[in-house]
Each structure stands twice: as structure tokens, then as C-alpha cells.
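Section 4.2 – Deliverable D4.2 (structural model, holo form)

The reporting period included a commitment to supply a predicted holo structure for the target in complex with phosphoenolpyruvate. Inputs used:
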Amino acid sequence: MTGSTSIPIESMAEWLSLQDGLLIVAGPCSVEGHHQLAATARGLAATGKVSVLRAGVWKPRSRPGQFEGCGAEALAWLTDIREETGMPVAVEVARPGHAELCLKHRIDMIWLGARTTVNPFMVQEIANAIRGTGIPVMIKNPVCPDLPLWIGAIERIFLAGTQKLIAIHRGFQTHVKIRYRNIPLWDIPMALKKELPQLPVLCDPSHIAGNESLLLEVSLKAMMLKMDGLMIEVHHQPGKALTDPIQQINPGRFDQIMKQLDPLKSDSNATKALQALREQIDEHDHQVLNMLAKRLSLSEEIGKLKKEHGQGIVQPSRQKDLFEDRQKQGETLGLRPGFVETLLRLLHDESVSVQSKHRKGNDGIKG
Ligand code: PEP
Ligand code: MN
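Output (C-alpha cells):
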């Protein structure tokens, strides 16, 4: 089932209500109580833009002693809210016992989190627990950027008899300091789409961005790449959330973001889509120019210090280290090496000329 052979996924539209052709999964990171779940779900239902209500019930926490979810008790709250709002409900499962409880409580869909997909033993045990039931499963990418491991998890669930499969791109852990919580590495979900063309692939901008202020730009990118939908974390009072408070948004903001994505949903409105992206580009360009100005003012300070201490402007070992470090970072961020090289040379030349400004004659040349 590898290479160009694709998994025969049933068309999503046959079993889920889509929003302008997109699958929109939204809901709190965690169920924290009956009231919090109901308030969030009612807010989301009122937008009319949600295909599936998501909610974590067992939470994988990095450190012990933190809120770990309400557990099985919350499953009945979820089915109650489904009856009230009409939204099907999805829950994360991390071991076979969780999957069995979801089946028992007639939860509509389950998903495997990034820390589960990474472990083939656990994926297989969950696959065995749901074997033959056909319950729809969403499979997040593993925490590490390993496409075969992601595909392997999808195959294990498929081989257990589930055809209603959806992949979720939630970005990858990285030690490099970036603007996002997880590095998107968009090429990986695109490669998955190529390998399994019939498999719907959603984007989870909440766990990629890690911050509500970056949600829109990540969602826009996912739409531009023609991903099949979004999974977004929504809480009726994000600031008070017991898990992932910084990245969650309230139902009102969720509604706004969906409206801002509207132009991208239909090709007929391509002009507006282009405009939305250009606004993003403008904002980034302004930030880049501000940062360049700050960087060059630091160069000027350095130039003064070097002059006071009789040092030359160009210091080859520092230049070599700097170039190597930035090339490495550029590679991690998916930037073309030739582009990074040209940019670094430009920056370097400008920095040398700023530092030379305080020197006369040939005292500014080389060091
Ligand atoms: C979540 O969806 O709340 C979650 C724990 O996500 P991930 O598995 O992507 O970290
Ligand atoms: Mn979360």
C-alpha cells in the first residue's frame, strides 16, 4: 500500500457536513467541565461553521502534576452536547482503553495525537482495539518529521478495517527558535497528499502557531496549499483555559477567522484571496525592514567600538561562523541556500559600509 497506490478513502462529503467543501473541526483543547464544554460548543454551533466538535478528554502533558483531562466522565457530556447542537464529536485516544471507551459511549470520531503516531506499538494496539468497527479516525503527524512513520500509522488503522481516515498536519517539534510553536515543514503534508491522493489532509493551525495572533496566517497558508480543512482550538474563555491557553480563541474570533478565509474557499473570488495574502506580505515586509534597520544600527555601534580599540572592520572568523549559523537556520526553515547566501552577502556588505563611515582613508579596510 505504498508508492502510488492510494487508500480508497470514502468521500468525506458522504459522511460529514462540509463547510464550502472544507472539513472544519473546532473545539476546546480539553474538556474542563460540563459548563465550559457546553458554553464553547453552543458558541461554536451558533456560528454554523463547524463540521465536527473536537475535545481532549485524556491530555498528554509533558510534566506530571498538571491538569490531565476529565477522563471518561466527559464522554457522556460530549454525547449530550452532540444531541443538543447536532455537531458530531471527536476525541483524542492515546491507548486502546481510550478507544474502547469512545466506542462504548458512541463517540463519532477519534484522533491519534502527535505523541501517539510516533509510536508504532501503540498505534497497532489502538488499531486492534477498533478493528472491524469502522469508526472514523484522524491521524496527526508524528512529533518528528518522519513521513513513513505518519503513513505507517495511517496504514495500521486502514488495515484494521477503517476507511474513514483523515490526516492532520500539526507541525513538527524543533530545537531551533522560530516564530511558531511547531515548525510546519509544509513539504511533508504535500508529499503525503502526493503519496495518498484520496486521503483528506487537514491543517491544525493552533498547534503549529502556538499563538492566536499567528492563527490566521497559518490558516491562510493551508488554504493556499488546498488542504482539505482545519482543526482549530476554541474555548469560551481562552485566557482561563487549563491547557494551551495562548493558542485558543473564543467562538467570536473563530467566526471572524472563518470569514477572513472565505475568499480563499472559492476560486471565483481569487482577487480577494490575493488581496488577503498581499496584506500579509505587506505586514511581513514592514517587519523585515524594521529588523534590518535595528540590525544596521547595531553594526554602527560595533563599528565605533572596533575603531576605539583599533580593530579592523572585517573579522574573517566571525564572518565564517555567522554565515555557517545562518545557512543552517535557513536550511531548517526551508529557505533556498543560494537565496540565504545572497542575502547574507548583501547584509555583510551593508554592515561593512556602515562601519566604514566613521573611518577615513584606508584605516577602515580589512582586519
Ligand atoms: C491536541 O490536539 O490538543 C493535542 C494534544 O495535539 P498534538 O497531538 O498535536 O500535540
Ligand atoms: Mn491542545
